[in-house]
Amino acid sequence: MTDLTLVFDLDGTLVDSAPDLIASTNHVLDHLGLARVDAATLRPFVGHGAKHMIEKAIGPACEKLSEAERAALLKRYLDFYSANIATGSRPFAGVVPALQNLRAEGVRLAVCTNKMEGMAQRLLDALDMTHYFTAIAGRDTFPVSKPDPGALLGTIALAGGDRSHAIMVGDTNVDIAAAKAASVPVIGVTFGYTETPVQAFGPDAVIEHFAELEQAIGMLVSRRQQASVTADADESSRLARAVAH
């Protein structure tokens, strides 16, 4: 697997960052004098960004806020989150051993997240995970972000990889859609942040724990190799028929 580039989503895939993102949302609610929202209610919205979480937490009253007021609330959220970025956030079970094994096998590892790049870097630094990755790309790294395939393809290129030898790993429809649009095989994780089970988005493989990751990678690599052999055989057959006629 030495020519493989493996691209991970961050929140809900590599890191369980929900505790700190939810705390930041409730910090905004405290400021507004609104009741806090429990973690179970907010968790499915984590993967959709800070603005979405704030809007869902405030509810219908959010419609009455001006753009300036919304911007101020977002700044309050981000300031609090930046100061508490790894208070409760931790890598999901099995993540670190999996990254260590993959790096030892020569796999290029990268992160493609819709978090701002600086914030993603800060979180990974705080969790001592940055050194595993050849590239870390965020919402502001490229002109586009997921689900636009350009974000994923840009990340692969930034890591020095090639789309034909890359796999995406993510937890939401945004990740799956970006990979499909980029024609990159994608592995869905079941423990992330989505209201709809990840299987419904049609990933090429699904894992319930990072201990299953290498097996899923092996299956996708083997499937791709078989498809290449079949395509070569079909082309040879076509050429042979053409010559015969």
Can you tell me about this structure?
This protein folds into 2 domains: 5-15 and 90-230, Rossmann fold; 18-83. The chain is built from 9 helices and 8 strands. It has helices at residues 18-32, 39-42, 50-58, 67-83, 95-104, 117-126, 149-158, 173-181, 213-244; strands spanning 5-8, 15-16, 90-91, 108-112, 135-137, 166-170, 186-189, 205-207. The chain has a 6-stranded parallel sheet, sandwiched between helices. A two-stranded antiparallel ribbon has the order 2-3. Helix 1 packs across helix 3, helix 1 (18-32) crosses helix 4 and helix 7 crosses helix 8 (173-181).
Layout of secondary structure:
Elements: E1 5-8, E2 15-16, H1 18-32, H2 39-42, H3 50-58, H4 67-83, E3 90-91, H5 95-104, E4 108-112, H6 117-126, E5 135-137, H7 149-158, E6 166-170, H8 173-181, E7 186-189, E8 205-207, H9 213-244
Parallel strand pairs: 1-4, 1-6, 4-5, 6-7, 7-8
Antiparallel strand pairs: 2-3
In short:
By secondary structure, the chain is of the alpha/beta class. Helix content is 47%, strand content 11%.
